[in-house]
Design brief:
The complex is a heterodimer. By secondary structure, chain A is α/β, with parallel strands linked by helices. Chain A contains 28 helices and 20 strands. Chain A folds into 3 domains: about 270 residues, 2-enoyl-CoA Hydratase, Chain A, domain 1; about 180 residues, Rossmann fold (3-Layer(aba) Sandwich), CATH 3.40.50.720; about 170 residues, N-(1-d-carboxylethyl)-l-norvaline Dehydrogenase, domain 2, CATH 1.10.1040. The two termini of chain A are about 50 Å apart. In chain B, helix 3 crosses helix 15. Classes of the chains: A alpha/beta, B alpha+beta.
């Protein structure tokens, strides 16, 4: 066993126990590439012939065991045959580990996801590190695929079908302790006992975990159709089959083949290789890469803030403050009214309980969030975020007041969505230090932060803002300081078109259904009601140019009458206990055929305009922004990617048709280049430099 | 004892804060003691030029910390971001725990052990533990041993309803375990001794409310920090104040301790309350190092013992030697804070000092010590109107007295409390007065 491997390390002790470390070369994270599996196959061949007493499988990486199969390897499969070959190979290696003559123990810390957990499933015993950082799961569904290295076979047999299908269908990851409760691991142990646990298990060879009681029945052939029907119904509520085929495929193969080892592995292979080359998976993989790209924009090493001071405990300021404290920063939250801060603390407590669960961690997060009516935190803060109401004079007065008090090296940011940074900067003696950090509501769900660059903003400030964004685990997107920046500007024509449709007499649920049918997470009418109609109106007024027409009178009237949406109990919908009482479409509701086009083409047309004007540097960043700020149908890969897939010429033709029918607001932007994909006039890198 | 005490380093009070005092309303209040202590200290530390890690020592007085709050001072210190390598300890001298913390801090500074100390007191009386009876604990032990169905059935049959009767920790805590009297009964004893009747008690109580409402209206309670719970509420004022308090209403209340003939009622006793108070103490070098403001100086303190059945008279037993040692007469003291555990008890202290027999026999003085000018005593109300969270009051009255001295540009004050179990504590404070030229 002296052979040297690039991605694995073997150690054999005097006790003849083999310790196999996953240690992928040139990477900080283990992900199973073809090369890594090739080496593993070779190692297993050696083990099959060896006199070893036991195998311990673990990781040499700090951040975890194995984060899954290598996405590059997955995405490079262009044909179902290529994909099938890779899957078969992986299945074979795992099967051989399962069949080793001696016990195999998997020691799990940090991320143990997807293929990594499937490898763990092939071992006789699994021991997880008792630490909040330990995360186990089978998240393949999030990429439009399902497990293929035996996960669909082994997990239901190990923990019962209901829990196993929940883990695979939701894609959620679970903590070490939850995994123990579910049966996904046999033991949890603190770091100090982890190695001893492995040795003890090999020495004592207790029987492997087995399903007991009623749970064994859940995989029974007579019950499977019932459970499958139930699962399909549950999945349909969240993911329509035409957009997301993977969960349905997963349910089907389990229903047909559960318990039949050979057939199930074959079905995993066939189903997965078909899914992986499909549009949904390819687009979701694209979204994964887009996310990686956004992450790379902020360099955490550049700037390591510890204290954040947020001014304004409104919805946005409060959410930003609570989020920053959750992410480990010391936060002071300033407002003139105690009741605003009190509301934030309440919401923060609810958020922390949901995210952290552990009482001690919740307390620690709350302790990091300090109400600060007197602005005591200003002097010490590394980052100052202005989030008061949208009023130029008020913001000017605030900046004049705080500029002399804050540290010269502190990052000064504004969360304004409508006042040009150039204007705000006038109140500062050093306007070059002001940058926009534009968060989206709700902050805890929307990953994107627009980093807004005014003409005068210094590059170093932009870089710091991007670094800060990464420190709080959000995704930075540098945008030009032009009205609406990127996201609101692209969203607004779509929202306004929805209001126009509603004014034309089409029912709100029908309009919303057209958008959700496209794959938007929430219909535009519901979105407007949720954001608040007063806010929509003020953003719309600010974006008169992008609206390309009048702001509908209907919106103005509702605001005048005080019907501001969900928060006042009435907007376009009437709300009862927070839910729309009139949110279901009637059967006789009028449904013109072009609703979806009218909504989505206005969205895409504005995206094309933003690209042409260089609001963002390139097409991928634009798509990423819209996906991570608005939840734009991720399986479509982003608005511009979608238009490319649909055919730019075809969409252009449909826009021209709509223009003839409804007028100028559908006029295709000058950025449309029929016959090819839209291009920016000037290519820029993320920082806005011309390329 | 009459020799003036020597100190190596003066203990300066830099600043302080307290929570609003929140009346216990039966159920556990919105804050545990640790949460209240943390919420009150955070804004205080935020306005300091130094980091929490610079603090050498944290000392906190608390009578009944919760089950998750063993050594509550350490729990609080770590949550506040103090240095792990710096010590924190909790002190308990019943009603004077908060003042004890300050005295310990001053001693630590005087001896040169610490240069910067965070000290105070906290109590969440509404969270006082409710305990199982011993008989119940014994039964539970048996139950865990019973493994078989038969054994369990047998054990279950032995469970008597009386075992389920809880022990209210708060009531036990407020009862002297040696003489077997509740604190209210000790107040009845000294009221009778000095002829203080129901009307005098009620009149005193009413004045306490009036003084507090006056102080609130004029914004004199600046040491209060708003605290926020996790249910969307905030608290910025003492909520025990009854602005509508009048003699008629007070007269209607029934006696609660010597029922039904006594005089001490809920209306003329301190309220059961949750609260926290903190002070930052520093030596001269630390004051200079960070250019800290100075609110005043702790000059000296005194602790005394007396008959537990008359614990309410503790203040005169502590204040008398304090005055003598510092060669001060009553007129030399500009303002007084005597914690209002009971209206009767504050009045009894005043009477005791006026009583030459008592002063001779009990305080070893040649004659009556004198009469405290009540216009200078508890000028902004006290325990009767704003409550007496036992561990916190000692720190609160010191902090508030310093603010009273500052407001009146006065120099010297004494803060004192009676202590359950038969003790008294007193602390002499001074501040630098400003002359017109400054």
């Amino acid at each position: 066993m002296t052979k040297h491997y690039r991605h694995w390390r073997l150690e054999t002790g005097d006790d003849n126990i083999v310790w196999l470390y996953a240690d992928k070369a040139d990477e900080s994270t283990n992900s199973l590439s073809r090369e890594m599996l090739d080496e593993l196959a070779d190692i297993v061949t050696g083990l099959e012939d060896s006199t070893a007493r036991g195998l311990v499988l673990l990781s040499a990486k700090k951040n975890g065991f194995i984060a899954g199969a290598d996405i590059n390897t997955i995405s490079q499969a262009k044909t179902t045959e290529q994909a099938a070959e890779f899957i078969r190979f992986g299945q074979d290696v795992f099967n051989r580990i399962e069949k080793l003559r001696f016990p195999a123990v998997c020691l799990i810390h940090g991320f143990c996801m997807g293929g990594g957990y499937e490898l763990a499933l092939a071992c006789r015993y699994r021991v997880a590190l008792d630490d909040p950082g330990t995360k186990l799961g089978l998240p393949e569904i999030n990429l439009g695929i399902h497990p293929g290295f035996g996960g669909v076979l082994r997990l239901p047999l190990l923990i019962g079908a209901p829990a196993a299908m929940d883990i695979m269908l939701s894609g959620r990851s679970v903590s070490a302790r939850s995994a123990k409760k579910l049966g996904m691991v046999d033991y949890v142990a603190p770091e100090r006992q982890l190695r001893k646990a492995a040795i003890d298990l090999i020495n004592t060879k207790p029987p492997a975990h087995e399903l007991k009681g009623w749970k064994t029945l859940t995989n029974h052939a007579l019950l499977r159709p019932l459970l499958a029907a139930y699962l399909r119904k549950q999945v349909a509520k969240k993911a329509p089959k035409n957009h997301y085929p993977a969960p349905y495929a997963l349910i089907s193969i389990w229903e047909k083949h559960a318990g039949n080892r050979k057939r199930m592995l074959q079905a995993e292979e066939e189903s997965l290789s078909r899914l992986v080359v499909g549009d949904t998976a390819q687009n979701l993989i694209r979204v994964f890469f887009l996310q990686t790209r956004l992450k790379s924009i902020g360099d955490k090493k550049l700037f390591a803030p510890k204290r954040v001071h947020v001014i304004g405990a409104g919805v946005m300021g409060g959410d930003i403050a609570a989020w920053c404290a959750l992410q480990g920063l010391q936060v002071t939250l300033q407002d003139r009214q105690e009741k605003n801060i009190a509301r934030v603390i309440k919401n923060a407590n609810a958020l922390y309980k949901k995210k952290l669960k552990d009482r001690v961690l919740v307390q620690a997060a709350l302790d990091r969030l300090l109400p600060d009516m007197n602005g005591l935190g200003l002097r010490h803060a590394d980052v100052i975020i202005e989030a008061i109401f949208e009023d130029k004079d008020a913001k000017h007065a605030l900046f004049r007041d705080i500029e002399p008090k804050i540290r010269p090296d502190a990052l000064l940011a504004t969360n304004t969505s409508s006042i040009p940074l150039e204007t705000l900067g006038e109140a500062l003696t050093d306007p070059g230090r002001l940058v926009g950090v534009h968060f989206f509501n709700p902050v805890a769900m929307m990953q994107l932060v627009e980093i807004v660059r005014a003409k005068q903003t210094r590059q170093e400030v932009i870089d710091k803002a991007a670094a800060f964004t990464r420190h709080i685990n959000r995704l930075p997107l540098p945008v030009k300081s032009s009205p609406g920046f990127l996201v609101n500007r692209v969203l607004m024509p779509y929202l306004v078109e929805a209001v126009v449709l509603e004014s034309e007499g089409i029912s709100a649920p029908v309009i919303d259904a057209a958008a959700t049918g496209f794959g938007m997470p929430m219909g535009p009418i519901t979105l407007a009601d949720t954001v608040g109609l007063d806010i929509c109106l003020s953003v719309a007024e600010n974006l008169a140019g992008a609206i390309r027409g009048e702001i509908p009178q209907r919106l103005k009237t509702l605001v005048q009458e005080g019907h501001l949406g969900r928060k006042t109990g009435r907007g376009f919908y009437h709300y009862k206990h927070g839910n729309p009482a009139d949110g279901k479409a009637g059967k006789s509701d009028y449904r013109p055929a072009d609703i979806q086009d009218r909504l989505m083409l206005r969205f895409i047309n504005e995206a094309v305009a933003c690209l042409r004007e260089g609001v963002v540097a390139d097409k991928d960043l634009l798509d990423a922004g819209m996906i991570f700020a608005t939840g734009f149908a991720p399986f479509r890969g982003g608005p511009l990617h979608y238009s490319g897939q649909q055919g730019v010429t075809e969409l252009y033709r449909r826009l021209v048709e709509l223009e003839e029918k409804y007028g100028d607001r559908f006029k295709p932007d000058a950025g449309w280049k029929p016959d090819k994909e839209p291009q920016p006039t000037v290519a820029r890198d993320y920082a806005g430099n011309e390329l | 004892m009459t020799q003036k005490r020597k100190v190596l380093h003066d203990a300066f009070v830099v600043d302080g804060s307290r929570s609003p005092f929140l009346k216990a309303k039966g159920a556990p209040g919105p804050f545990t003691a640790a949460n209240l202590a943390v919420a009150t200290a955070r804004p205080l530390l935020a306005r300091m030029p130094f980091d929490a890690a610079a603090i050498d020592e944290v000392i906190l007085g608390c009578v009944m910390p919760g089950p998750d709050e063993a050594n509550i001072a350490r729990v609080t210190a770590l949550r506040l971001g103090c240095d792990q390598h710096k010590p924190a300890w909790t002190v308990q001298r019943n009603c004077a725990s908060g003042m004890q913390a300050l005295d310990c801090a001053a001693q630590s500074i005087a001896l040169g052990r610490s240069g910067l100390v965070l000290a105070g007191g906290v109590e969440s009386m509404s969270h006082a533990p409710v305990l199982l009876a011993n008989s119940m604990v014994a039964w539970l032990a048996q139950w865990t041993k019973a493994k078989t169905f038969g054994a369990r059935a047998k054990t279950l049959a032995q469970l008597k309803p009386v075992y389920l009767k809880p022990i209210i920790g708060l009531l036990r805590g407020l009862t002297d375990p040696v003489v077997g009297l509740s604190m209210g009964q000790t107040a009845e004893i000294i009221a009778q001794r000095f002829g203080i009747d129901r009307e005098a008690m009620d009149r005193y109580a009413m004045r306490s409310h009036q003084r507090l409402s006056h102080a609130m209206d004029l914004g004199w309670l600046k040491e209060i920090e708003t605290v926020y719970d996790t249910d969307g509420n905030f608290y910025r004022e003492d909520d025990g104040l009854r602005r509508d308090s009048d003699m008629e209403k007070l007269a209607k209340l029934k006696p609660v301790f010597d029922r039904p003939f006594g005089n001490v009622t809920a209306g003329n006793s301190a309220q059961v309350t949750d609260g926290a108070a903190w002070l930052i103490l520093a030596n001269e070098a630390t004051v200079a190092k960070y250019n800290l403001p100075v609110l005043g100086k702790i000059i000296d303190s005194e602790w005394a013992g007396l008959d537990p059945a008359q614990m309410g008279l503790g203040p005169v037993h502590a204040m008398t030697p304090l005055l003598k040692r510092n060669k001060l007469s009553l007129d030399d003291v500009d303002y007084w804070e005597i914690n209002e555990a009971f209206a009767a008890q504050v009045l009894a202290n005043i009477e005791a000092w006026k009583d030459s027999k008592y002063c001779r026999e009990e305080l070893h003085q040649r004659g009556a010590v004198g009469e405290i000018n009540q216009d200078k005593l508890n000028v902004d109300g006290g325990g009767v109107s704003l409550g007496h969270p036992v561990g916190a009051s000692g720190a609160r009255i010191v902090l508030h007295l310093l603010h009273v001295l500052k407001r009146n540009n006065a120099k010297r004050g004494i803060a004192s409390l009676c202590i359950g179990g038969g003790q008294g504590g007193a602390m002499l404070l001074e501040r630098q007065t400003l002359t017109a030229a400054e």
